[in-house]
Amino acid sequence: MSGPGGLGALGLLPLLLGLPGLPQARPRYEPTWGSLDARPLPAWFDEAKFGVFIHWGLFSVPSFGSEWFWWYWQKEKREPYVKFMNTNYPPGFSYEDFGSLFTAEFFDPNQWADILKASGAKYVVLTSKHHEGFTLWGSKYSWNWNAVDVGPKRDLVAELATSVRNRTDLHFGLYHSLFEWFNPLFLEDATNAFNTSKFPTSKSLPELYEIVTKYQPEIIWSDGDGNAPDTYWNSTGFLAWLYNDSPVRDTVVTNDRWGAGSICAHGGFYTCSDRYNPGHLLPHKWENCMTIDRSSWGYRRDAQLRDYLPIEDLVKQLAETVSCGGNLLMNIGPTHDGRIAVVFEERLRQVGSWLKVNGEAIYGTKPWRAQNDTVTPGVWYTFSPKEGKVSAIFLNWPVSGILELGEPRAKLGETQVTLAGYGELLKWVALGEKGMVIALPQLTPQQMPCQWGWTLQLTDVH
Description:
- By secondary structure, this protein is an alpha/beta fold.
- Helix content is 28%, strand content 16%.
- It has 2 domains: 33-361, TIM Barrel, CATH 3.20.20; 379-459, Immunoglobulin-like (Sandwich), CATH 2.60.40.
- It has helices at 8-17, 33-36, 43-48, 69-75, 79-88, 109-118, 156-167, 184-191, 198-215, 230-233, 235-244, 311-323, 342-358, and strands at residues 50-54, 123-129, 171-177, 219-223, 253-254, 286-291, 326-332, 379-384, 389-394, 402-405, 416-419, 422-425, 428-430, 436-439, 454-459.
- A hairpin with a 4-residue loop joins strand 8 and strand 9.
- The longest helix is centred in the middle third of the chain and has 18 residues, at 198-215.
């Protein structure tokens, strides 16, 4: 018999027979990029494909220009922002005074959750704290500068997390800004060329540990490094804890914004830049975070209808992004009183109605050998491993009713073509070894399975 701690004969038996034996030890990650970057990304994130970003904070009160309102007004003193404040607020009014005006009286987390569910999104990321430093939860480390002590007097993070988890199957995530524009401790560290670390040790890192243990988000979307390196933020130390010992260690995903130089190089999935859409396949999982409002992440009262992307553009972004192996994170900005403006709600519900018809070409797919068609522009391919189907998402319905695809290799008697949302098989002709011509059904507008972008499902093509 083996001694204490040994396997013994009974312990070795499953191994000898090739059967499941003792539970395997969980891998431990070291606080180095080499170790952390080797962690496999939890599978749910790649399968999800589509999420909703929510930028909400004190910038939602002036709701003018940009969520960078405070910086543009006080630091850069941009003329439109200075004029806006001089015109609409009394002399001496400070950004901190917006705190009491951030009221959220119409915030109904159940309604938000229902809209998110209707969008077809599989995850949501809420700004727990933007660069202004105001937290949407009652942080112990943000005394009197949070939504529980000031303004709504409510834990907005907790309320949305509860509603999302009770009413939807979405994964709940949190955005967190590492730096804060005007925090004295951060400014002192910056003056010291980040050789001191008062701010991360007393504010930023404790907040990160707090939101993970309190709300157990499955996405930590970090941002705002303030030009400081990851060593200043102790990002690798935090991520090692997150992956090894946190309550979400098995399911959590992270992005790549953990200090100057880490973007598009380290972390979980890559974001590379805002509105990143390379249009070709990348070797690493990535996300296209973009805004329905072309100019701002936060709500803008001064936005015009032309400032909002139409649904056709959103479908195009989704098809392009997923075809190239990315996820789409589509941003909305609620109002200071807690409403999702109807234009955002409409866009989200439109995407959801499109996904009800075409979701098989999006969810759980992998990139195909070709991303876009070489003959007909505006055609993007995805592959469904479970069904063995290739989906061709085409953004323009041809006037002729004939769609030519240059990429698929079809075989007579084997290949079948269907239109998502339309039951009958479609007729097609092969163009030699590669390419095919497909006769689309003659449909009235009322008979169309959807209005913007359509999916051909191809079986037995190569």
